[in-house]
Amino acid sequence: MKKNEAECCDVICIHKDRVQKVLKSMPGELLLSELADFYKVFADVTRIRILCVLLESEMCVCDLAEVLSMTQSAISHQLRVLKQMKLVKNRREGKTVFYSLADGHIQSIISQGMEHITE
Q1: CA neighbor of 101 nearest in space, from 55, 41, 43
Q2: Fewest CB within 10 angstroms: 65, 80, 87, 100, which?
């Protein structure tokens, strides 16, 4: 067996009590699909970079573009995705729109992910 292959049981034996317990508590397909879509947002490096910047400070699109060496258009496109998934929020101050993380959960998700990959 190769080092990274998953191991399988040597016999077929269904543990019905465990199977039933899990089936009762499994979320529905719609909820699982929404969860998968939520995590897909984190699969883009640019969006992760934006979230990491917003972990440090609320920023407008101009500032984000400067920090990340990107165009405002590219930043706006990614912010739209992040806002649709409720990961960021915005507020207007005069003619400037500032973006920040939607809530503390987002900081936790990023921090735990970083902790996991750096172990």
Answers
A1: 55
A2: 80
**Percentage above 70 pLDDT, the chain:** 97
| Rg of the chain taking only CA atoms, in angstroms | 20
* Cα–chain center distance at 81: 11
Helix (H/G/I), strand (E/B), else coil: 1: coil
Average pLDDT in the 17-36 region?
95
**What's residue 2's pLDDT?**
66
Report yes or no: 18 and 24 within 8 Å, Cβ to Cβ.
Answer: no
Quickly count: other Cβ atoms within 10 Å of residue 28's Cβ.
Answer: 8
- Complete domains list, the chain, with CATH: 28-117 (1.10.10.10)
DSSP assignment string, 69-110: T--HHHHHHHHHHHHHTTSEEEEEETTEEEEEESSHHHHHHH
**Global pTM?**
0.82
Give the pair of three-digit tokens for residue 21. Answer: 């317990």
Looking only at the bridges linking them, the beta strands covering 59-60 and 88-93 are: unpaired
